[in-house]
Amino acid sequence: MANFAKPSVPRFSVDVYQNEYLPEGGREVNAIVTVTATGGGTLGGGLSPAASGGHPSAAVAIMVDCSGSMDYPPTKMRNARDATAAAVDTLRDGTHFAVIAGTHVATEVYPGDGGLAVASPTTRHRAKQALRRLASGGGTAIGTWLRLADRLLSSADVALRHGILLTDGRNEHESPEDLRAALDACAGRFTCDARGVGTDWEVKEVTGVASALLGTADIVADPAGLAADFTRMMETAMGKEVADVALRVWTPVGTTIRYVKQVAPAVEDLTARRTEAGPRAGDYPTGSWGDESRDYHLCVEVPSAGLGREMLAARVSLVVPQPDGSVQNLGAQGLVRAVWTDDMTASTAISPQVAHYTGQAELAQVIKQGLDLRKVGDFDGATAKLGRAVQLASASGNADTAKLLSKVVDVVDAATGTVRLKTRVTEADEMTLETRSTKTVRVKK
User: Fold this and answer.
1) In this structure, are strands 281-289 and 242-250 parallel, antiparallel, or unpaired?
2) pLDDT per residue over 106-117, tens digit each?
3) What is the arithmetic mean of pLDDT over 38-51?
4) pLDDT digits (tens, 9 = 90+) for 70-84
5) CA separation for the pair 290, 372 (Å, rounded)
6) CB 3.0 to 4.6 Å from 309: which of 36, 248, 305, 442, for a disulfide?
7) What is the pLDDT of residues 227-238, one digit of tens each?
8) Distance CA 334, CA 13 (A)
9) Tens-digit pLDDT profile for residues 410-435
10) What's the rounded Cα separation, in Å, for the pair 259 and 443?
11) In this prediction, what percent of the chain has a pLDDT beyond 90?
């Protein structure tokens, strides 16, 4: 194995973009908060995922759907085994790991002793041998898979815990309430990437898992693409350096937080996930970080003040909760300000960053609304919503989403959002658009 230099801990920085000027009587303050982690020795910093020295301890659980539908076509199960083997090969030496077979029950395939194996050439080989025993049969109960993953991951004293979940079908062998309860129980305990293979699974279930557990969701329409996708997911997981980072927002007396949303690389509303952190402060979970940058939209309502007055509307910092109840402050901070002015030009200007991400959030929303309307036969409503989506994607330079939209609608005029619904749309194209609807592009500098 190659000998790589010991990586350093990432350094975090916070940048705030806003128009701080408000008109007389103005109360709403919007800001885009960019959080950047650099220098952590992750893939972005040039280290191989196989490098082990100096990385934080990690545990990974791979959950593979083994329900009966994985036999159709017969190559699907083989592709899933190959993908899991590729993910195992990507594990860094010293990483704790387990493989779970998911049906209407959850079964530990490897190591099989109720605990986790530690990645090494020997255990990786044994895990791949065990994968040969994976066979399809039974139903689907994703909540049980997640609960077993949680039990296994929590058995290791590690800094980072992560899951990878693959399903090809709908969660028909447990109630939506059971799945929701499992997600609530696992939230904050490990992060999880979720993938749907083929086109017989439910988008809202897969994206719901990823959203609740602060991971990514995607479709792999062709099972032949699973190995490459699993490899990329595991490389990213191996590149994480700091777990459980929270965005701490402090506001002064009389100020109300209207919402906190991640807006890049994907839209994720964090408002309801706040946990109180002392007087007038709350923590919003962001998950695990490597070398990367993300954007957050903070909207606060401040008490009205007279012209010429200035106030601190919010202070944003980054913390990592500790087992003893204390927090580690990551040393990065950003300030959101409010200044009242009678200069109409200053007070009516919209920050380019705020305008961009407001549009990106609307883009995600109207795509989902449009697809839902299309499914229930409201084609006029669907056309209007998806036309607006085309307009927003074009204006913001979101070429990937624009390309996905073009497979569902014929674009007459992107600038005005004039479109026609396609009469024939493949299920894979529709599901890909729905699954990836929250992915955004960064604001143009």
Assistant:
1) antiparallel
2) 999 999 999 999
3) 44
4) 998 889 999 999 999
5) 35
6) 305
7) 999 999 999 999
8) 9
9) 999 999 999 999 999 999 999 999 99
10) 20
11) 90
Residue pLDDT, tens place only, 143-157:
999 999 999 999 999
- Region of 39 please: left (phi>0), alpha (psi -120 to 50) or beta: left
Is 438 exposed, middle or buried, given 0-12, 13-18 or 19+ CB atoms closer than 10 A?
buried
| Contact yes or no for 299/28 (Cβ under 8 A) | yes
Q: pTM, whole model, 2 decimals? A: 0.93
CB 342 within 8 A of CB 25: no
With tokens 């952190």, the residue in question is 277
Q: How far apart are CA 262 and CA 265, in angstroms?
A: 8
Are β-strands 275-276 and 327-340 bridged in parallel, bridged antiparallel, or unpaired? unpaired
C-alpha dihedral (364, 368, 369, 371), degrees to nearest 10: 140
Strands 327-340 and 21-22: parallel
Cβ neighbors of 377 (< 8 A, separation 6 or more) are none
Query: Which residues are CB-neighbours of 222 under 8 A, at least 6 positions away?
Result: none
Angle at 228 between CA 36 and CA 56, to 5 degrees: 45
Give pLDDT, residue 349. Answer: 94
How far apart (Å, rounded) are the C-alpha atoms in residues 432 and 109? Answer: 30
Contacts of 413 (CB under 8 A, 6+ apart): none
Four-point Cα dihedral 378, 384, 386, 388, nearest 10: -160
Distance, in Å, from the CA atom of 351 to the CA atom of 52, rounded to the nearest integer, reads 43
pLDDT at 2: 32
Both tokens assigned to 10 = 């990432």
Give CA–CA dist 424/410, Å, rounded.
Answer: 11
Percentage of the chain exceeding pLDDT 70: 94
Nearest Cα neighbor of 19 from 443, 444, 354, 361 is 354
Count of C-beta atoms within a 10 Å radius of residue 146: 29
CA–CA distance, 68 with 70 (Å, rounded to integer):
5
Q: Alpha-carbon Rg of the chain, whole angstroms? A: 23
Angle, to 10 degrees, between the axis of helix 203-212 and the axis of helix 427-435?
20
Render 75-140 in DSSP notation, one character per residue. Answer: HHHHHHHHHHHHHHHHSPTT-EEEEEEESSSEEEEES-SSS-EE-SHHHHHHHHHHHTT----S--
Closest C-alpha among 235, 238, 202, 227 to residue 217: 202
Q: What torsion do the CA atoms of 331, 216, 109, 160 make, to the nearest 10 degrees?
A: 0
94 DSSP assignment: T
Question: Within a 10 A sphere around the Cβ of 309, how many other Cβ atoms?
Answer: 12
Query: Phi-psi category of 263—alpha, beta or left, where left has phi over 0 and alpha has psi -120 to 50?
Result: alpha
Q: Which amino acid is residue 25, in one-letter code? A: G
Average pLDDT over residues 195-215: 97
